[in-house]
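Case study B.
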Amino acid sequence: MAKANIKDINRNIYDFKNADNYDFKIEKGLNREIVEEISKMKNDPDWMREIRLKALEMYNKLELPTWGPDLSELNMEEIATYVKPKSKLNSSWDEVPEDIKDTFDKLGIPEAEKKSLAGVGAQYDSEVVYHSIKEDLLKQGVIYTDMETAVREYSEIVKEHFMKCVPISDHKFVALHAAVWSGGSFVYVPKGVKLDIPLQSYFRLNSPESGQFEHTLIIVDEGASLHFIEGCSAPKYNKVNLHAGCVELYVKDNAYLRYSTIENWSKNMMNLNTKKAIVGKNAQVDWVTGSFGSKVSMLYPMSFLNGEGAKTEYTGITFAGGGQNLDTGFKVVHNAKNTSSIVNSKSISKNGGACTYRALVRINENAKNSKCSVSCESLMLDDKSRSDTIPVNDIRTDDVIFSHEAKIGKISDKEIFYLMSRGLSEEDAKAMIVRGFAYPISKELPVEYAVEMNNLINLELEGSIG
Amino acid sequence: MSKLLEIKDLYANAGDKEILKGLNLNINKGEVHVIMGPNGAGKSTLANVIFNNSEYTKKSGEIIFDGENINDLSTDKIAKKGVFMSFQNPEEIPGITTTNFLKVAKNNIDGKPVKIFELKENIKKNMEELNMNPKLIERNLNVGFSGGEKKKNEILQMLVLNPKLAILDETDSGLDVDAVKAVSKGIDMYKNDENAVLIITHNMKILQNLKIDFVHILIDGKIIKTGNAELAKEIEENGFSKYKK
Amino acid sequence: MDIIVNETPVRTSKNYGINNVKLNDIKIPEKLNEFNNAKIYSNKSKISNKIENEKLAYGNGKILEDNVYNNSNNILKIETEKEDIKIVYEFDDNNLNLINNIEIIGNKNCNIVIEYKSNTDKTCFHNSIIKAIAKENVKLNISIVNLLNDKSLNFEAIENTLENNSIINYTIIGLGAKTSITNYYSKVLGNNANNDLKSIYLGQKDELKDINYIVNLYGEKSNVDIDVQGALDDNAIKNFKGTIDFKNGCKKAKGNENEFCLLLSSKAKSKALPMLLCTEEAVEGNHSTASGSVDNSELFYIMSRGVSYKEAVKLIVKSRFNKIIERISDEYVKNEISDEIDRRLG
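Model:
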């Protein structure tokens, strides 16, 4: 049969770019002066300045990974680590400069905020330009602010948690992040407070040849509950951009956190992001991840199940088209009794794109009576593409139930025939099957909360039919 | 009477194996035809070949539907011309509800957007008639359906899509009484002077309450005898041995 | 000497500790006398002892590979005829080191069983390369049975080539040796070629089993099936790396890989990296791995029939192993394997 044309993600709505208007753009490259300058501009307290400088040293010491996608195109000498937009932090969209507000309008963020979000943060290049949270949540003691404000106003709690879940020595890009980080969100949900609608942060990188290094620190205190959504996009430039964000999540005893990410960076982006969660007793963290954009992604959210009865679920979909190499997956370490993890990953490769599912499951000796079940499925839409599954399973005790299943293949001819016998063209039949394949994951994505994802999932994966 | 389907001297292979060896068949509007035959005679192959399933290849002969040669039409085009096939083993398609699927199919077949409300009413009415669990319609297409539920779902699709010719490729066994009844009832509801039915079966129970115009016996890739409903009764009593070489 | 062996075809994060295995203080013997205790049972096949040494695609690294090419004390080139061949290497106090190089030219269907066993308590060293080629339409059944004592070092590098419509059924019984490193690579070039690999391993005390299976599918409608059943007791460590690589052009190829590790101790460590690599659309690939302790209800059922805990565990392990041991054609060797499992789980 002829090849169906499963459409690429429609990028038009993300690819508009604004003039590269900035207040301040730091010199390209990376050295001690640049790090010191960033630190000075941010009025860092001493402890933060020290972390930055230590991290820079670490960055210079650590090697690039010897595995995974080719990163040779990335030249740190060409990347500006800090770009300050022409805007201060605002709590009303009306105060945000017109061109920047326009960007977020087009992405549908203010609209989504009105409808269905408990709070919104918006970052443009290196700085957060907008942050707001619903009044009643403030009263309950919920904190949702940009990281710089948090460093100033909640210094103790930030100091206690910053780069503790993700150590600066983790890998080269974490060290880089810690040296030059800027922007990002800080969330604290007090004991027992349950948010029934989500908070969302949106990251937009407008400036060419620059990096975005936002830091997200979330603490969900005992018995509290939160859904946090992160969205990312950037217009396409010819030169490489870099995203090396860092997400640290602390989910205390009996707490719940759902962390959803829709990553739709442009196809010149190197997305080398690090996300980890420490999960307490009977607490749970769920990761929902849709990876559609960027040229290269290396992204493996990680859960440390440190408390007895801790749980984690990872639900992810990766869609790689031409020129994309998306290396994604999940890592979990079981560190206590009665912990459990569930992994459900799907990938779609088309038109020369490459998807890799790379993962680690480690069940340590103290994790008696733990369970882990992993399922990953990969769909190849043509023979130009690539799909690899590289999961490591490291089981260090006997009292466990562990299973891992993976499948790779194409769309079934029988299914296509069945749908065509009901009048669907071959293209439509294939598209319908691909949507069905993605559905168990896409239904977990918070579609109703942001126009961006409606565009991604509905228009492209569910759209073209009917 | 006006001709609906005409098959002339059809030869076809499944893989390298020759299955249909010079089959001829004419179906007019308003008629109900039954094809019977032992296992391996080519019954299911015929349905699949009419629908241009790529696992089968036509070697020679012609299939003419509604005055047009449909030999080389793709499966969806054949469906759009008004042919429907009820599958022996309907595929399970995860991630799409039966309602949505019917909407998409109906849009394609009719070539215009359906009115959702009307469609839903239509589905609801037919499901009641077929004694179907109304919840099935919101579940993913055939996923986790029992054999009987899948069969009813095929008949439901036939009623909703309302083709000119319905080819029912029946399973030889395994259907409960309720599903058999639903098939008979469905055919009864569907049938009128402008359309036709071709039932491919072993199962006499499905035929019991139907008015059958022609019964064909298919053996070794050819129709070797054609008769009326009496012929089906005779086969039920005596089997095919008399007709085998 | 410290050596790094069994590199995976694709690397993953170094922190996971599975890309390769580093062995410290390995004494690699050189300049050996002929291995005197090798028995070869064969009637028809042509057996000679000149082999053209070609570099392996994967193998156990340059040091061990050169060791075989330069220091072999047993070389067999087998040009098969239709028959059953058995080769038994029995280590004893005078034959403690075997470096063997075997090449199997599969001209005709043939069953070949190669057995290594220790008739000594001293440390035995074994390093081998076994290459096999299955010519068009030929079926080879090759079994390697390792019953070396628990002080031994065992290195195996296996490389197969499959032509059109050929079959290689490989069976690896990995019961013996303190440190056992197996590198297996099949190049499935031919259309409709079929490589079936089944193996068992048993790790006890502080043994290390490092298993690296790589199968590259090139031929249309080619097929690979890998099934690995293992059990780990005490402080044993097992690393299983299994790669099925669907190369562009292997239309309608199928690959299945399954590994199951029964954990008999809370200190045993089971690592697995089952990889599927794919650059072809029209394929079907599946893999599954699982680890866990003995199923309690199964155990309870067997024990309710008056069987002791230890015997019940033994039964459960053996029931998993048996379907693989059954593949070995030689009854005598089969019994030896069974006795060895009984003795080791005793």
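Chain B touches chain A through 30 residues (CB under 8 Å). The remaining cases will be described in the next quarterly update.
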